[in-house]
Amino acid sequence: MGMPLIFTGKRENEMRRKFRKVAVGGTFDELHKGHRALLMKAFEVGEKVLIGLCTDEFVKKMGKPHITASYEKRLKELEDFLRRNNLVERAEIVPLNDPYGVTLSEGCIEALIVSKETEARAREINLKRAELGLQPLHIVVIDMVPAENHVEISTTRIRRGEIDREGKLLRRKVEPGKVRSFEEQV
């Protein structure tokens, strides 16, 4: 069983291979520029994209430092994004109840599309696949998307009121350590 191919940096952009089906997973809360870059890379390299969307129950177990929008709200934002980009026909959104989803099943997908932040999880998935006697998945890694101050865009930073979904710095400051609730942002 050979090592999976890992594409990063310029090699990633030069990649010509199209996978039949790839997977990407996440909370996709405050669907921001970084999430959109991850999703667009998945559609660039995969003919079909399986999107695992973390359920409310799974999110609670994650210990996020902020309140997360409901599964229904996050699902609607994801569906709206897919519609706006004419990607609905190539996408399948499934509830994600654990870190693995369908990745430990044979033949479901060929590759995982991840950010540098979640690359370790992809490697862990391949180790678990090896234990199960399954072929490793290809891993495509994208860089984290920086905000205008060159610090990565994240939902936590958005919830804190530091940046908007495009990574633009916001003037309004929140008390240090305080994270705005979902209701305060609506």
Tertiary shape: globular
CATH topology: Rossmann fold
Strand order of the largest sheet: 1-6-5-2-3-4
Q: Spell out the CATH superfamily.
A: HUPs
Oligomerization state: single chain
Helix amount: 25-40%
Instruction: Please tell me the total number of domains.
Output: 1
The string of secondary-structure elements, in order, is EHEHEHHEEHEHH
Q: From the helix content, strand content and strand pairing, which structural class follows?
A: alpha/beta
Largest sheet: 6 strands, parallel
Count of alpha/pi helices: 7
Assign the CATH class.
Answer: Alpha Beta
CA-CA gap between termini:
50 Å
Name given to the CATH architecture: 3-Layer(aba) Sandwich
What's the count of strands?
A: 6
Q: List low-confidence stretches.
A: 8-14, 182-186
Rg computed from alpha carbons, rounded to a whole number of angstroms: 17 Å
Please indicate the percent range of residues in DSSP E strands (runs of 2 or more).
15-25%
Give a quick precis of the structure.
The protein is an alpha/beta fold and 186 residues long.
Question: Which short descriptors sum up this protein?
Answer:
alpha/beta; 6 strands; single chain; 186 residues; globular; 6-stranded parallel β-sheet; Rossmann fold; 7 helices
Structural commentary:
This protein is an alpha/beta fold and 186 residues long. Helix content is 33%, strand content 19%. It has a six-stranded parallel β-sheet, sandwiched between helices. Strand 2, helix 2 and strand 3 form a beta-alpha-beta unit. The longest helix is centred in the middle third of the chain and has 14 residues, at 71-84. 32% of the residues are buried.
